[in-house]
């Protein structure tokens, strides 16, 4: 992974996503692309974490400049040199774009390796939710969805939600750079593996070829979502890797199912890859 994209607006959850991006960027030796697309609203938002002497109130009227200021501050704090144009060396760079999230993620996403966003609140505005869904559905790249509140460093203990599907396999392949850096990798299965796809033992063998030592954990619950959450906590994971629905299941994605639960209800970091057929 060489390019990590983070959409940035004047909302506190954007600061959470950006901080994690720089943490992962240092581990992966990846450049960070901060992209200001559009303000969500005109409210005043305070970005915390810049130190008591450096805290600023970010108002919608100055959204782009203030978001850029915070991006530059975090870049310098993490020893990233800020440049104007993308280069081969590990750097931080800032871009500003106008347009709807669907269009911009379809342009910026495919030329990035990883996208990091934070969940909108349950009562959040539709535009905030549109950003998250557009990142997943339009970028064709893995997306890490973070809780709104700050979390400790992610990627040390990763679990894989394995259901023998093509989507799950593609998500695992996309997450290989992160899995290689993890201290612990767990494969969570909910029930007996009766589908036609590869069983967990074959995934374990595949990961071993990448020098990744993974172990299977069988979990149960009142439903698949509950079982996955039980597995996440049982393995003490800090990031879950899972596939998203294909286009033919898009209605399920919006109105129910495991993916919908993990996006909108589970308050844990998730790496998701939507793989349209």
What does it look like?
This protein has helices spanning 12-28, 63-77, 101-108, 126-138, 166-174, 176-181, 200-209, 224-234, 250-255, 258-264; strands at residues 3-7, 31-36, 45-47, 56-58, 82-83, 92-96, 114-118, 143-146, 157-161, 184-189, 214-218, 239-243, 270-273. The protein has 277 residues and is α/β, with parallel strands linked by helices. The protein folds into two domains: 3-146, Rossmann fold (3-Layer(aba) Sandwich); 157-268, HUPs (Rossmann fold). The strands form two sheets. Strands 5-6-2-1-7-8-13-12-9-10-11 form an eleven-stranded mixed beta sheet, with helices on both faces.
Q: What is the CATH topology classification name of the largest domain?
A: Rossmann fold
Number of domains: 2
With helices defined by DSSP (H or I, 4 residues minimum), what is the helix count? 10
Give the oligomer, counting copies of the same chain as homo and different chains as hetero. Answer: single chain
Based on CA inertia axes, which overall geometry fits?
globular
Report, as a whole number of angstroms, the end-to-end distance: 24 Å
Structural class: alpha/beta
The CATH H-level homologous superfamily of the largest domain: HUPs
What's the rounded overall pLDDT mean?
Answer: 83
C-alpha-based Rg, rounded: 18 Å
Main β-sheet: number of strands, strand sense, barrel status? 11 strands, mixed
Indicate the low-confidence ranges by residue numbers: 39-61, 247-255
What are the secondary-structure elements, in order, as H or E?
Answer: EHEEEHEEHEHEEHHEHEHEHHE
Q: Residue share in helices?
A: 25-40%
β content, as a range? 15-25%
- The strand order across the widest sheet is 5-6-2-1-7-8-13-12-9-10-11
User: CATH class of the largest domain, please?
Assistant: Alpha Beta
